[in-house]
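Workshop exercise sheet. Pairs work together: one partner reads the sequence aloud, the other fills in the structure field after running the prediction. Swap roles for the next sheet.
Pair: D.N. / O.F.
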Amino acid sequence: MVFGFGKAKHPELTAQELDAMLRTGDAVVVDVREVDEFAAGHIPGAINMPLSTFQPSRLPDTGTKKLVLTCLGGKRSGMALDKCGVAQAAVDTHLAGGFGAWQSAGLPVER
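Structure field:
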């Protein structure tokens, strides 16, 4: 038996959970997709910090708000969270399914 099989490596939020947190002002989103991907459409209010130049030390101070990372499908945000873990940054959550899940849920997109 493989322990942890099927379990997310990092805590995840659904698109609906993140939307609710954004509506109440309880979350800040950092999108780690590249600049051109971000410009084509992103979660309203998201901050772009491409994985190619991602540095946990440059993450914004969100005070009491939850910092949530996202990308297109969840792989790159997971990689960014790995970097945060190594740097002992206080961010540990990302959007399950990434921006693709956000769009599929019919949630607003900013361009």
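Discussion prompt: The mean pLDDT is 92. What would you look at next?
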